[in-house]
């Protein structure tokens, strides 16, 4: 799923913004529900919690997308490491 989102052009920053918007929307939905509905504070709390639960999911997806953006898939043909692209010899720690 994360690779598909990445291929669709969705970036980790988009998910981080969605998480922050979810927090703001949770506060807004709580206030609107509290002030306009006659169902009381319990219903407002439920709305705020329902929308607020989206934020961790968006942040987790943002982290997964960030990992996808920064880690290269070496199984794809034509992909080379930084060392290979710069013609740098890998260091050996044996027999210094």
Total count of helical runs of at least 4 residues: 5
CA radius of gyration is 22 Å
Strand tally: 0
Q: Mean pLDDT, as a whole number?
A: 79
The computed structural class is mainly alpha
Low-pLDDT parts are none
Give a short account of the largest sheet: none
**What percentage of the residues does DSSP assign to strands (E)?**
under 5%
General shape: rod-shaped
Region (Disordered): 75-96
Transmembrane segments: 12-32, 47-65
Keywords: Membrane, Transmembrane, Transmembrane helix
Describe this structure in words.
- The chain is mostly helical and about 100 residues long.
- The chain has one domain (about 1-85).
- The chain is built from 5 helices and no strands.
- It has helices spanning about 1-5, 10-35, 40-50, 55-70, 80-85.
- Helix 2 (about 10-35) packs antiparallel against helix 3 (about 40-50).
- The radius of gyration is 22 Å and the shape is rod-shaped.
- The protein starts with a helix and ends in an 11-residue tail after the last helix.
- The model has no long low-confidence stretch (mean pLDDT about 80).
Quick synopsis:
The protein is mainly α.
Features:
single chain; rod-shaped; 67% helix; 96 residues; mainly alpha
Topology of this structure?
Blueprint: H1 2-7, H2 12-36, H3 41-52, H4 54-70, H5 82-85
């Amino acid at each position: 799923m994360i690779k598909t989102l990445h291929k669709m052009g969705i970036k980790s920053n988009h998910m981080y913004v969605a998480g922050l918007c979810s927090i703001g929307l949770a506060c807004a939905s709580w206030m609107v529900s509290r002030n306009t509905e006659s169902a009381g504070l319990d219903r407002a709390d439920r709305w705020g919690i329902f929308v607020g639960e989206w934020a961790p999911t968006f942040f987790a997806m943002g982290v997964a997308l960030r990992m996808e953006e920064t880690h290269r898939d070496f199984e794809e043909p034509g992909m080379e490491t930084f060392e290979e692209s710069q013609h740098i010899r890998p260091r050996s720690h044996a027999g210094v």
